[in-house]
Amino acid sequence: MMMQPTHRTLIVILAIAAGWYVYWKTFKQLKERVDAAEQRAQSAEQRAQSSDKLLLSERKRAEELLVSERKMAEKLLVSERKRADDAVRQLRCMGDKLELDVQMFLRGIGLTKQALAASHYATTMEYEPYMLCTQASPGDHIAVWSDSKGYWHHGIFAGTSEHGHAHVLDIMPDGLARRPLGLFIKGADAGAVLFYKDALPLDCSLKLAQYLVEQGSVVEYNLVEENCDKFAATCRLGRPCESEQIQKIAERLAAIAKVLQ
Across-strand partners of 193? Predict the structure, then answer.
């Protein structure tokens, strides 16, 4: 049965309308996807710009921090260099004062620095620490060894008083002083009396030690430059001299460094 023309026309119109509807729906979906893609692209670009700004900001902060740290390091270097120079000058002044005080004392008792031989101690006699008060004579260079500390502590024996109290003249971090022998040997595991090849008479060494303590010849204790070994040896020899203990340590360190090279 043949359709009427009116119905055929209506069907064509509906088909065309359906086609346009599908086209419009598809176009709308595509446009939404394109718009979403453009928004994502814009967002990514904004984030990239923000990252660039942040990178520039961080780079600027890093450069400023580097400049600041460099200036601080330069100031610290200048300050440390100045402190080191001041320390060297102070040590030199201390050494000059010690030498001057020794010369003044020797001139006062009629001796001269040139008349003394430049020699360190030749022999040592070891005793129990508590025996030093009976084995040492006033003016002797005495020393005590501590296993826990690992070094010798030196001083000049000042003798025993009428009341039986023995004292020592030595230098410690708190400076030159006259101390009880009991404090000097506290914690010691061994003691020794050091004898020299050519030295001042014992009474002169004792007077020199007392004079240096009274004068405050060593203003500040220093483990390398102004230590107890140097003080005691100076009093016995009548001239400022180097610490033999420190010299031996330096020689050992040099030998170790030579082996490691």
Answer: 125, 142
HSE-up of residue 131 (Cα within 13 Å, Cβ side) = 10
Are 170 and 153 spatial neighbours (Cβ–Cβ below 8 Å)? yes
Instruction: Identify any residues that bridge with 177 across adjacent strands, giving them in sequence order.
Output: 170
Q: Is the pLDDT of residue 234 over 70?
A: yes
| Contact status, residue 106 vs residue 112, Cβ threshold 8 Å | yes
- pLDDT > 70 in the chain, percent: 70
Label residue 115 by pLDDT band (50, 70, 90).
Answer: very low
Contacts of 177 (CB under 8 A, 6+ apart): 169, 170, 171, 213
Q: How far apart are CA 118 and CA 143, in angstroms?
A: 21
DSSP-derived letter for residue 131 is: G
Q: What average pLDDT does range 39-45 have in this prediction? A: 83
The phi, psi pair for 175, rounded to 5°, reads 110, -175
DSSP assignment letter at 120: -
Strand segments, DSSP code E, in 128-232 are 141-146, 151-160, 166-172, 175-180, 190-196
The amino acid that residue 244 corresponds to is: E
* Whole-angstrom distance, CA of residue 259 vs CA of residue 204: 44
Residues 252 and 151: their CA atoms lie apart, in Å, by 14
How many angstroms separate the CA atoms of 58 and 222, rounded? Answer: 48
Distance separating alpha carbons of residues 213 and 177, to the nearest angstrom? 6
pLDDT band, residue 112 (cuts 50/70/90) = very low
Closest of 261, 253, 158, 143 to residue 205, by C-alpha: 158
Report yes or no: 159 and 206 within 8 Å, Cβ to Cβ.
yes
